Automatic annotation (TrEMBL):
It comes from Orthonyx spaldingii. Its main location: nucleus. It is found in: Nucleus speckle. Involved in pre-mRNA splicing process. As a component of the minor spliceosome, involved in the splicing of U12-type introns in pre-mRNAs. The gene is Crnkl1. InterPro entries: HAT, HAT_Syf1_CNRKL1_C, Syf1-like, TPR-like_helical_dom_sf. It comes from the Eukaryota. Coiled coil: none annotated. Keywords: mRNA processing, mRNA splicing, Nucleus, Phosphoprotein, Repeat, Spliceosome. This is Crooked neck-like protein 1. One of its GO terms (cellular component) is U2-type catalytic step 2 spliceosome. Belongs to the crooked-neck family. Residues 1-21, 684-704 are annotated as: Disordered. One of its GO terms (biological process) is spliceosomal complex assembly. SMART domains: HAT.
Length: 704
């Protein structure tokens, strides 16, 4: 039995071992492909979408103390560092990290992050720009200069670095530094726009000779840029620059040098057209003809269409047009007809066509072309699409009035145009005013008033009100002006200029009470576009009327709204100029009140400005006591130092700056005491050095 059991146990063990070695595989009964195929990409996408759906929103966190804030900073920095560690080449992670540190005013950390990012990818333009913008935003000018220098040294072909560097230096008023950066840029032979930026920079500071020298480098043969940009337009720009600054002989020499430079093999019509127009402006008509003929004889006809056109225009202006009139007019008319057929809403083509027709044909033909032109109404009722179209009507009306001398047709043109405009959406004030001025020229005042009244009723605008009021003022219809001003102010109550003009009108008419009431209504408006101008006008009005008490009340009311230092100074100067015996005490009292009110002002420069004005007053009108008092109130200008750190975190020295310390400020008293003690110590030290005969000299110095 034991042997049998052992034998059976051995069989079972072998059977179990066999099962472990050969696992069973499920048999696939149906090996046909499924009807709906699912790819691995689809599986991954669905898994990602479900992951986003199941992700709960982050809880809102409120930070209440410093420990929580430090914990929050630590977590955020760890998150940013993990993102960077996962993929160092994604620059957006570095920028977000640095901007977050910048938002916490951790400028040194932000610099460190930017420097680490530059070590990863120093060719990234955005990274350099963000770094420099951070320094400029925080007014770290020297740091910004260092970054720009590194950027243009590392990537000198990125023009954006040069533009921003020069712009920063110019905004700082460092013209010499900006010029030096431009010179470094020009050594790299940049594109054309860079040279023009340099030239415009010099012209902004009236450095015409420097600009000319840059142009010479730009276009001269065997110079810097002629090998890179040998283009006709560069010569033309140089010549126009000389012409603009009234150096006509230099401009002519530039054109002649350009003709010699390009020779007959590379002739360009644009150069000769510009040369001819220059001579035309100088009234050298024979030279113009020689230039045109010289160019037309040597340039192929298919390349000289613009040249031929300008030559014909010149001959029409200054020459005998009998020989070329029929050919030129018919040719141009055919071209314009083709243009307006291809695009009927090309109003520039219609303007050129009408200009040609007006100069060479009869009135009926001109009217026919005008009618065809104004029939092409813009399809969209938006004002920007009608701005060119409306001038067709204006030119039509002016032609009928001035050239054809037909006043009835002119009136019909104006009325038809005004009926066509969609006044509920927009209008053109110039059209109403031109129509009214036309009726006045025809001595038909009722129609002019009716037109302007209709315009104000349908589509009120500031320009319409001003034109109507000006008309009635010229006619001395002051009651109508009052009514128009009332309507105008109902339409635009925030317009300070209208209130002031209305009050000035009443002042001229001698109705002071009405003018004062208008000013009171004006300053009581809840919203004004220029309130400071209105208040100044009101105060000047009361001063002219010698109503000094009312002027004082006005200043007090204004000071309730604003505590600006200029208002206080103006108030004090008013009291000084009031011309009474009490003017000096009143003026001094105003300065006292202003000084008390300005103690809480954060802008120390404004308070210094007030005290300087007060001191100038006391120097002229005060006594020794008052002068001594104001001298005690004057602040002390203290030079302070603050520590600077380099980009790597090391000490970069100290920076000096100026601050004002006012004796009246109690917060600054400890500092003042410290300064007084320092001065006393210095004085005692000097006295001890002078007392050389004192045997206890060393003891006294040590005690001091």
């Amino acid at each position: 039995r034991g042997g049998a059991c052992a034998q059976s146990g051995g069989k079972m063990a072998s059977t179990a071992a066999g099962k472990q070695r050969i696992p069973k595989v499920a048999k696939v009964k149906n090996k046909a492909p499924a009807e709906v195929q699912i790819t691995a990409e689809q599986l991954l996408r669905e898994a990602k979408e479900r992951e986003l759906e199941l992700l709960p929103p982050p809880p809102q966190q409120k930070i209440t103390d410093v420990e929580e804030l430090n914990d929050y900073k630590l977590r955020k920095r760890k998150t940013f560092e993990d993102n960077i560690r996962k993929n160092r080449t994604v620059i957006s992670n570095w920028i977000k990290y640095a901007q977050w540190e910048e938002s916490l005013k951790e400028i040194q950390r932000a610099r460190s992050i930017y420097e680490r990012a530059l070590d990863v990818d120093y060719r990234n333009v955005t990274l350099w720009l963000k770094y420099a913008e951070m320094e400029m935003k925080n007014r770290q000018v020297n740091h910004a200069r260092n970054i720009w220098d590194r950027a243009i040294t590392t990537l000198p072909r990125v023009n954006q670095f040069w533009y921003k560097y020069t712009y920063m230096e110019e905004m700082l008023g460092n013209v010499a530094g900006s010029r030096q950066v431009f010179e470094r840029w020009m050594e790299w032979q940049p594109e054309e726009q860079a040279w023009h930026s340099y030239i415009n920079f010099e012209l902004r500071y009236k450095e015409v000779d420097r600009a000319r020298s840059i142009y010479e480098r730009y276009i001269l043969f065997k110079a810097v840029l002629v090998l890179v940009h040998p283009d006709v337009k560069n010569w033309i720009k140089y010549a126009r620059f000389e012409e603009k600054h009234s150096y006509f002989a230099h401009a002519r020499k530039v054109y002649e040098r350009a003709v010699e430079f390009f020779g007959e093999e590379h002739m360009d019509e644009h150069l000769y057209v510009a040369f001819a127009k220059f001579e035309e402006n100088q009234k050298e008509f024979e030279r113009v003809r020689v230039i045109y003929k010289y160019a037309l004889d040597r340039i192929p006809k298919q390349d000289a269409q613009n040249l031929f056109k300008n030559y014909t225009i010149f001959e029409k202006k200054f020459g005998d047009r009998r020989g070329i009139e029929d050919i030129i007019v018919s040719k141009r008319r055919f071209q314009y007809e083709e243009e307006v057929k291809a695009n009927p809403h090309n109003y520039d083509a219609w303007f050129d066509y009408l200009r040609l027709v007006e100069s060479d044909t009869d009135a009926e033909t001109v009217r026919e072309v005008y009618e065809r032109a104004i029939a092409n109404v813009p399809p969209i009722q938006e004002k920007r699409h009608w701005k060119r179209y409306i001038y067709l009507w204006i030119n039509y009306a002016l032609y009928e009035e001035l050239e054809a001398k037909a006043s009835k047709r002119t009136r019909q043109v104006y009325q038809a145009c005004l009926e066509l405009l969609p006044h509920k959406k927009f209008t053109f004030a110039k059209m109403w005013l031109l129509y009214a001025q036309f009726e006045i020229r025809q001595k038909n005042l009722p129609l002019a008033r009716r037109a302007l009244g209709t315009s104000i009723g349908k589509c009120p605008k500031n320009k319409l009100f001003k034109g109507y009021i000006e008309l009635e003022l010229q006619l001395r219809e002051f009651d109508r002006c009052r009514k128009l001003y009332e309507k105008f102010l109902e339409f635009a109550p925030e317009n300070c200029t209208s209130w002031i003009k209305f009050a000035e009108l009443e002042t001229i008419l001698g109705d002071i009470d009405r003018a004062r009431a208008i000013y009171e209504l004006a300053i009581g408006q809840p919203r004004l576009d220029m309130p400071e101008v209105l208040w100044k006008s009101y105060i000047d009005f009361e001063i002219e009327q010698e109503e000094y008490e009312k002027t004082r009340n006005l200043y007090r009311r204004l000071l309730q709204r604003t505590q600006h230092v200029k208002v206080w100074i103006s108030f004090a100067q008013f009291e000084l100029s009031a011309g009474r015996e009490e003017r000096l005490p009143r003026c001094r009292q105003i300065y006292e009140e202003a000084n008390k009110a300005m103690r809480s002002c954060e802008e120390k420069e404004e308070r210094v400005m007030l005290l300087e004005s007060w001191r100038s007053f006391e120097e002229e009108f005060g006594t020794d006591t008052t002068k001594e008092r104001i001298d005690k109130l004057m602040p002390e200008k203290i030079k302070k130092r603050r520590k600077l750190q380099a980009e790597d975190g090391s000490d970069a020295g100290w920076e000096e700056y100026y601050d004002y310390i006012f004796p009246e400020d109690t917060a600054n008293q400890p500092n003042l005491k410290l300064l007084a003690m320092a001065k006393l110590w210095k004085k005692q030290q000097q006295e001890s050095e002078a007392a050389a005969t004192d045997p206890d000299k060393d003891i006294d110095e040590s005690q001091t």
